[in-house]
Each structure stands twice: as C-alpha cells, then as structure tokens.
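Chapter review: from sequence to fold.
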Amino acid sequence: MNDRYIIDTPESIEFGYDVAGIGVRFVAALIDTALFSIILFIAFRLYIGDLSMIMFVNPIAIQIFFLFSIFTVVIYYIAFERFWNGQTPGKRLLGIRVVQDAGKPLTFNGSLIRNLLRLIDFVPAYYAIGVLSMLIDKRTRRLGDLAASTFVVRDRQRVTLEMLLQSTRDDKVASALKDSGATLPNITALRPVDMDLVQNFLLRRGTLAPDRRLRIATQLAYALFGRLGYSVPGDPEQFLQQANDQYVLLRAQALQQATSAPVAID
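The token string follows.
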C-alpha cells in the first residue's frame, strides 16, 4: 500500500515522496517494540525483582513502574525521531522516516504530539480506529500523524556532490567507450606515472571482483582521456590494454633508437 505524495513548491517545482505503507510501518513498529521491551524488562528486574515475587510487591511500586514504562516508550520515540531526523531504529532498518507536511523535517512539537497520541493507539478500544484511519487516509496516517500534520515516507538515498560527479564521470566514459578499435594518437602525452597505475591494474585485475574491476577500469580510462585530449569508444578495460600495449611499444622503439644512435666522439 504505497502511494506517491507530490509537493508543488511556490517556485512551481514539483518533488515527491513515496509514502510508506502499513506493512513496512508495522514491521518497523515491531522492531522498536522489541527494543524498548528489552529496556523495560531490564528496568523491571532491577526495580521489582523476580517475576515470581510480583504478588508481594507494593501496588504503588507497580503503578510507578507502569508510569515509568509509558514515559520510556514516549521518550524512546521522541528522542530517536528528534536526533535521527525522523527515524527510530526500526524505521532506519526499514528505510522509512517521519516528515512534516510539505516534506519538511520533523519538528520537536510534531514528534511530541504524534507520540503522545501513540498511547491511544495502544489502547485496544482505539487501536482499530487508528488502523482504519491508516486504511482510509491516502498517506496512511494514524491518529497521531493527523494531529501532528506528519506522515511516514520511504527514505531517499542521500546524494553527495562526489556521487554526482562520479555518476557524470562514469556516464561520459560509458558513452565514449561504446565501439572499440581505434589506434591511439597523441600516445606520448601519457606520463610514466599514469601508465604505472594502468599496468598495476592490468596485473591485478584477475584478483578483483567484477564490479570493482569495472569501476577501477572506468576511472583509469577517464583519467587517460584527460591526458590524451580525446575519448576512445569501447570497453574501458580493452582501452587500457590497448593504451598499455602501444605505450610499451613506443618506449621500446625509443629505447632501440637511443641505443642504435651513433655516439659522437669529442
């Protein structure tokens, strides 16, 4: 039960969120319930003692622990959602987060309201109302979400400048290396340090995983394109092999010419 929530900004720019469905939210809630249940169990053993002795415990102590449990549950959700940008451990594992209306980051007041009303969702008489609300609402909001103007979305992968540059770089290489075969003019522009890296890769490529092997070959090919002043279509690894072969041949020819040249006698 996923939907797409589209937001139109005042600048007439549209962006959207994938609304998290009931299923993924339920699993996230189970994970969080398990975590704070462990916390409460440890606290119970430290405060009350053995479960078999609960009949002999002062009722006031039981009431105090009950209030402590409610406080712990609310603080658990508020603290994590506040400092983890709308996520609890369960939400983070499932890749979802809470946001305000219009996709803004979750505020403290929003987290406070939605999690105080979470206590109503735990009451059996009102639990069905909360589920019904999620089924009816197009953004699968429970009562707390409606009151706090929040909803839960699928988390989007963070994009950094380096990721964008790398993506552009790889796209350029992929488009440039489509149909291989050309010889390499301007091969003398390649530096020994560049070819040392290429030769090291060619020697070790058999030990690399396929995805890592392709990624390194692509990066090296793009670096050599900058030296050559042009790009060569084809497979990046095939290009590196071709560049290395021609570079070695060029060096061998230069060495041969140097050794066969007449020596001037002063």
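Two observations follow directly from the output. The chain has eleven helices and four strands. The chain has two domains: 3-154, 161-260.
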